[in-house]
Design a protein that fits this description.
Layout: H1 2-27, E1 49-60, E2 63-69, E3 81-85, E4 91-95, E5 105-111, H2 119-125, E6 132-139, E7 149-155, H3 159-168, E8 174-181, H4 190-197, E9 201-205, H5 214-217, E10 226-231, H6 233-242, E11 247-250, E12 263-267, E13 272-276, H7 282-289, E14 306-311, E15 314-315, H8 323-326, E16 329-331, E17 336-337, E18 341-344
Length: 346
């Protein structure tokens, strides 16, 4: 009988703990992490997949392609990307460049960034065939729309989301591609693209300013053409200046630590008020006080640092949140205040 009483007591305690946890989460959806009505970045965990690295191959100078194998994988549309959780725990986003109809594998490619933050080097040097990786998504913030004609302007590895778009366009569709890179050897999928598009594909080497002759190459673009651009920030800015309606996919978000001035952030639950300098981020200021604050990509893509905003106006600089999510939350790694003060539920 003593053993039975012990079992009953333990079971009762466990039930009380579960109820308390449920009440605590309902009272504050940001504890311990955001619980979103429409989950992003793979939350809840049940949306994440464990996929096998079926191949790891070099497809251009400094560019590695991964094929991730699985079964009955979620379908995707051209322009979609995945979150990859690397062995170190870093989360990085890579555009899908394979066949959307293939439900047995996902294909992504990444260029080695020598002075980057470590994600691309980890993919190149530590991810190997036979390894399992956690994958979240796919998500699509760069969809292919219907249009009378298309113009694609791409720099280097920016070809990855565009390649499935070109494959998807019908033979009678009017399109052209301007594909820039430092050298032909550094430009992935070049041979396939030239076979696919023929004289619709223009391959250019970068000039001294790092940009192709856009005025000459894009002359005659129809007003109703859908213009797409993916590549380095300089290329995006140049295309956006000429075509304000351009559809963009950035390697990195708009500069996060480039603000118009300092502002205050109150952490309501912690009872602390912080100053965010013009040359820093909300995340940096918060982690100085709360070092356990969760974050990952620091680029506004993964959603790990999302926090609820109780007061103040936000200047959103992320590439992830929907308009509905932006109404009461922000990604503190990149977004800033439009007002003099923000109040966060932290």
């Amino acid at each position: 009988m003593p053993k039975l009483r012990t079992v009953v007591a333990v079971a009762g305690t466990a039930m009380l703990v579960r109820r308390a946890m449920r009440r605590r989460i309902q009272a504050s959806p940001l504890w311990p992490m955001p619980a979103l009505e429409n989950p992003t970045s793979g939350r809840p965990r049940s949306r994440a997949l464990r996929l096998l690295v079926a191949s790891h191959e070099t497809v251009a100078d400094g560019v590695v392609q991964l094929r991730l194998g699985g079964r009955d994988l979620p379908r995707w549309e051209p322009g979609a990307h995945l979150d990859l959780v690397l062995p170190s725990g870093l989360v990085r986003q890579y555009s899908l460049c394979g066949d959307p109809e293939d439900t047995s594998s996902y294909t992504v490619a990444t260029r080695l960034i020598e002075d980057g933050r470590g994600g691309s080097r980890e993919v190149h040097e530590q991810v190997t065939e036979g390894m399992e990786l956690e994958v979240r998504g796919p998500r699509n913030r760069f969809p292919l729309i219907e249009a009378p004609s298309y113009v694609f302007v791409v720099g280097g590895i920016g070809i990855t989301p565009v390649l499935p778009m070109l494959r998807a366009l019908g033979e009678d569709t009017e399109w052209r591609l301007v594909y820039g890179g430092r050298t032909r050897a550094s430009m992935p999928f070049l041979e396939e693209l030239e076979k696919l598009g023929g004289d619709r594909v223009t391959v250019v080497a970068e000039d001294e300013d790092g940009l192709p002759d856009l005025d000459g190459l894009l002359a005659g673009t129809a007003e109703d053409a859908a213009v797409y651009c993916c590549g380095p920030e300089g290329l995006i800015a140049a295309v956006e200046e000429r075509f304000p309606q351009v559809r963009l996919e950035r390697f990195t978000p708009r500069t996060s630590a480039d603000g118009h001035g300092a502002f205050e952030v109150e952490l309501r639950r912690s009872g602390r008020t912080l100053t965010v300098p013009a040359d820093s981020t909300v995340l940096a200021a918060v982690r100085a006080e709360l070092p356990d604050t969760a974050y990952s990509c620091e680029q506004g893509f993964c959603g790990t640092c999302q926090q609820r905003v109780l007061e103040g106006e936000v200047e959103h600089r992320d590439e992830l949140l929907t308009d509905a999510e932006r109404a009461d939350s922000m990604l503190i790694c990149v977004s800033r205040a439009r007002s003099e003060r923000l109040v966060l539920d932290m």
